[in-house]
Amino acid sequence: MVFAATVLPFVGLFTAFLVAAAPNSQLCARGQSVVDSTPTCKATASPQAFQPASFNVSKWIWTGENLTPGGNNIVSTRPLRKNITTPCDKCAVCATIVIASDDASTVYINGVRIGTGGAPRQGQALFAALQPTWNLIAIAGQNTVANSAAGVLATILVHYSDGTTGTFITDESWRTLSTAPPANFQLPSVDDSSWAFAAVQGTFQNSVWVQPTLPPVLPLTGSNWIWTSDNVGGNAPVGSRAFRKTINQCAKVAVCATVLISADNHYTLYVNGATVGSGSSFSAADAYTIPNLLPTFNTFAINATNDAGPAGVIATILITYRDGSNETVVTDGSWKSSLTLPQGFASSSFDDSAWQNAKVVGAYGVSPWGGALTIPRA
Ligand SMILES: *[C@@H]1O[C@H](CO)[C@@H](O)[C@H](O)[C@H]1NC(C)=O
Ligand SMILES: *[C@@H]1O[C@H](CO)[C@@H](O)[C@H](O)[C@H]1NC(C)=O
Ligand SMILES: *[C@@H]1O[C@H](CO)[C@@H](O)[C@H](O)[C@H]1NC(C)=O
Ligand SMILES: *[C@@H]1O[C@H](CO)[C@@H](O)[C@H](O)[C@H]1NC(C)=O
């Protein structure tokens, strides 16, 4: 039985932490895994609409120092660890992690610090590249208020190379210690097999906490509406315009991208010449996951079309790198723009060196679009 996939009713919680979690049942026989012999896998999946990670099946966990689920705990920092393993016919590429914590947390994957978790009522979304066969998730949870409930609630949505996803949650199969995290507790080389199992403090649906909300998948704040030079005073001629941005961090290996985009009036987004998606709303943004970035050069191209009057396109792109870092790229005056759409304009090999830089119409929030676009939640 895969205990991790079982959702316990709340009445089961009081005994849940006494039950030893079943051993991991996803181990592959030698030669069975498609990625046994390869350090990374090549994603064959196409870009897809962003899939939310969602807290809804996850559980609040802590050490069990207080035997009552959701009971008060001392001011403390506690280690929580889980080795999430890839089903043997799959290859993990990258993950969305959503995490809420009472009161704070720091998240590490395979020993690398990825970011910090959100507050009890406001989850945080993190994006990270993964190893193909297994990934060690380590969290330092902090209870900063004396005699108060303590817990961490997280969901890890894993994108596999074939375009499917897997969901992993915080539950009673995680390992923990009722002490401060030992030195280097986040490293895969630390053996946690003698640590205790985590104690469930409640489910997302039923706990002493108010159900945490999730932030927008990415912010538009910090990004800009851009257009071509023929946008004067916010208005532009009717027609389609081309925009391009090539991202190249030559010392790093790019893995996945998450893109948030909106246009007045229509856009079609391409990555390395392949169509990602289209949209036609300037009051809502669309989000996509690109699981198949190239290691170094990646070209984002947009065909944006104006029907009348105000014209603009706005995007925020988050790239995850193999070393655990990420980079945010926004539409700005560094994008290239063209009044025409030449044959092959979206391809990565197209030469845009003669194109003009895009014209910044205004930062996100500027009239007539304002600062309240509908953005999908992480
Ligand atoms: C949890 O959320 C996901 C994504 O929004 C949804 O597909 C699923 O049906 C939900 N499950 C439950 C048990 O609410
Ligand atoms: C990007 O990396 C920074 C630095 O580690 C981290 O603080 C931030 O949360 C990360 N952003 C996402 C969305 O993962
Ligand atoms: C995670 O599990 C896999 C599969 O059993 C194993 O090969 C790997 O060494 C484990 N990693 C850690 C850090 O425990
Ligand atoms: C650009 O988008 C417009 C509106 O969807 C479409 O009519 C036009 O054919 C597209 N042009 C190219 C070159 O893809």
Question: According to CATH, what is the class of the largest domain?
Answer: Mainly Beta
- Which oligomeric state applies? single chain
Alpha carbon gyration radius: 23 Å
Tell me the count of domains: 2
Write the layout of secondary structure elements.
Elements: H1 13-16, E1 48-49, E2 59-62, E3 72-73, E4 76-85, E5 92-102, E6 104-109, E7 112-116, E8 124-129, E9 134-143, E10 148-149, E11 151-160, E12 165-169, E13 175-176, E14 196-197, E15 199-203, E16 224-227, E17 239-248, E18 254-264, E19 266-271, E20 274-279, E21 286-290, E22 297-306, E23 312-321, E24 326-330, E25 336-338, E26 356-357, E27 359-363
Antiparallel strand pairs: 1-21, 2-15, 3-10, 4-9, 4-13, 5-8, 5-11, 6-7, 6-9, 11-12, 13-14, 16-27, 17-22, 17-25, 18-21, 18-23, 19-20, 19-22, 23-24, 25-26
The site of one 2-acetamido-2-deoxy-beta-D-glucopyranose has 4 residues, from loops.
Task: Characterise the protein shown here.
This protein is an all-beta fold and 378 residues long. The protein folds into two domains: 45-203, Galactose-binding domain-like (Jelly Rolls, Sandwich); 224-363, Galactose-binding domain-like (Jelly Rolls). It contains one helix and 27 strands. The chain has one helix at 13-16; strands spanning 48-49, 59-62, 72-73, 76-85, 92-102, 104-109, 112-116, 124-129, 134-143, 148-149, 151-160, 165-169, 175-176, 196-197, 199-203, 224-227, 239-248, 254-264, 266-271, 274-279, 286-290, 297-306, 312-321, 326-330, 336-338, 356-357, 359-363. The strands form seven sheets. The protein has a six-stranded antiparallel sheet, with no helix packed on it. Strands 20-19-22-17-25-26 form a six-stranded antiparallel sheet, with no helix packed on it. A five-stranded antiparallel sheet has the order 1-21-18-23-24, with no helix packed on it. The longest helix has 4 residues, at 13-16. The chain is elongated. The chain binds 2-acetamido-2-deoxy-beta-D-glucopyranose (4 copies). One 2-acetamido-2-deoxy-beta-D-glucopyranose binds at residues 113, 115, 126-127, 318, 326.
